[in-house]
Automatic annotation (TrEMBL):
Pfam families: Bac_luciferase
Record keyword Oxidoreductase present: yes
Domain of life assignment: Bacteria
Gene3D superfamilies documented for this protein: Luciferase-like domain
Record keywords: Oxidoreductase
UniProt protein name: LLM class flavin-dependent oxidoreductase
Species for this entry: Paraconexibacter antarcticus
InterPro entries, sorted: F420-G6PD/mer (IPR050564), Luciferase-like_dom (IPR011251), Luciferase-like_sf (IPR036661)
Keyword check for Oxidoreductase: yes
Length: 312
């Protein structure tokens, strides 16, 4: 089993990118191993890592994740090679299909055959990132000096299997603790890292439940995540929520969210309690932890340091 790695989600909500340098330095000094971006409706997945590369020396930098629908293989290779160069080999390309919302609704690109699209992207990227010619004869001007690992975003069996077959690891998300072993077994590659993002709210569960439910509805009703929760055995909990949300009754959807499921997914309370829960995920097969600190900007330095100390 790979060594446990401790990471953070960047950029930090509510903090301008121009003011991230000190937070990146704080994370590295506190002992974090990784910084991983997201890419939804905020900054793109690459720019925050370019900024981090300039002010850190040790932490690994990963996209978590970008997709091959809205960027072609040549552009993805250029991004990856540039960040590997800027960070002196600390970059990991986290790649995944994303969702119909981001790909099709927001970008106007048909969201079809995601499994095939991701497989093709890896096959097209591997030779180019090794300095060889790829699709259409494309070749990077300068051969990358450093190996660039590829980690695939994967929620269910087929994509987890693809990650085990062609990638260096898998990246999952919104995982209930009771489903960790199912995901790890479906991945079936104990020699490769299994990354997961977690949402950390440093408040008692009863105070944070409203925010947790809203976040869950926004993600859980996206078809790829609805299918993920069904696959994990939570159809009874997710189906009424998705039906109400897509029917336009968002207040009803929030009312229908199962609070026990929120306790399985979110990390509430102080950092010690979070660390205890994360140890359960580690026992279930997660090896790389990407923690999303959900707090006010002024509290981020404290929370970053505290989360670093919560490592199992």
């Amino acid at each position: 089993m790979p060594d446990l790695r401790w990471g953070l989600t960047v950029p930090f909500t509510g903090v301008p990118l121009a003011h991230h340098a000190d937070l990146y330095r704080t994370a590295e000094a506190a002992g974090f191993d990784d910084l991983w971006t997201g890419e939804t409706a905020g900054p793109d997945g690459f720019t925050p890592l370019a900024l981090a590369a300039a002010v850190t020396d040790r932490v690994r930098l990963g996209t978590g994740i970008v997709n091959p629908f809205t960027r072609g293989p040549a552009v993805l290779a250029q991004h990856a090679a540039a960040l590997a160069d800027a960070s002196e080999g600390r970059f990991v390309l986290g790649l995944g299909s994303s969702s119909n919302v981001i790909v099709e609704r927001w970008n106007g690109v048909p969201f079809v055959k995601p499994l095939s699209k991701v497989r093709e992207a890896v096959e097209q990227l591997r030779p180019v990132l090794a300095g060889e010619r790829g699709l259409g004869g494309f070749k990077l001007e300068t051969r990358p000096e450093h190996e660039i690992p590829i980690v695939l975003a994967a929620l269910r069996g087929k994509m987890l299997g693809l990650a085990a077959e062609v990638a260096d690891g898998a990246f999952t998300n919104w995982l209930p603790v009771s489903g960790a072993r199912q995901v790890a077994d479906a991945f079936g590659a104990p020699d490769k890292e299994l990354v997961c993002r977690f949402f950390c709210i440093p408040k008692p569960a009863d105070e944070a439940m409203g925010l947790a439910k809203w976040m869950f509805c926004a993600y859980g009703t996206v078809p790829v995540y609805t299918e993920f929760f069904r696959w994990l055995g939570f159809a009874e909990q997710i189906d009424p929520v998705a039906a109400a949300w897509h029917g336009g009754d968002r207040a009803k959807a929030l009312e229908l969210v199962d609070e026990d499921l929120m306790h399985e997914i979110f990390l509430f309370g102080d950092e010690a309690a979070m660390g205890e829960r994360l140890a359960e995920f580690h026992a279930g097969g997660i090896t790389t932890f990407v923690l999303t600190a959900i707090t006010e900007p002024a509290d981020l330095p404290r929370m970053i340091t505290a989360l670093a100390a919560a490592r199992p």
